[in-house]
Amino acid sequence: NAGVTQTPKFRVLKTGQSMTLLCAQDMNHEYMYWYRQDPGMGLRLIHYSVGEGTTAKGEVPDGYNVSRLKKQNFLLGLESAAPSQTSVYFCAITDSFNTGELFFGEGSRLTVL
Amino acid sequence: AQSVSQHNHHVILSEAASLELGCNYSYGGTVNLFWYVQYPGQHLQLLLKYFSGDPLVKGIKGFEAEFIKSKFSFNLRKPSVQWSDTAEYFCAVNRGSARQLTFGSGTQLTVLP
Prior knowledge:
heterodimer; A: mainly beta; seven-stranded mixed beta sheet; 50% strand; B: mainly beta; six-stranded mixed beta sheet; four-stranded antiparallel beta sheet
């Protein structure tokens, strides 16, 4: 989906290292979300934002931090990576739940050794 | 807490067979319901959605879903599957006032040629 760009696409970390995933959108949508996808677990919401300067916790927020300093960018940070954070991370955006459709990025595959 | 259950984890069908994937949710109030599809190596895409009105909704690629309020269900159907339908299918629920989707664990569909 050209409207939602995630970087990096792949990353390998050692336990204890830190990193930041960037989600950038060009659709001017208010709502942005970070999900993680694990086999047999579906997608679980980590954090989300309902507008510039706002963030909120989702279902599995521990070990992650987020920031939304600019409307078009939503950053997901891991301060001290753990093997349990090995996952595929998806960013998603929507303009309103009146329409309800989430637009997803291509995903970022993170491996923590 | 709101939860979404997909009881079929992996379904294997031959081409032209009929498909029905189950989805049940736990929340009793007003809900919006979705089915997303994830083709191999790709991001999630919206298949269909239900907000109100006719409980039988039609989506892309010949898929349809029926909302049965009394059973808290939103099952996905397709009369005749194709090899290209091989993908993972996710049911998702949004409570009317909420700003986030809760996803089920997903059902992997494999269609044999």
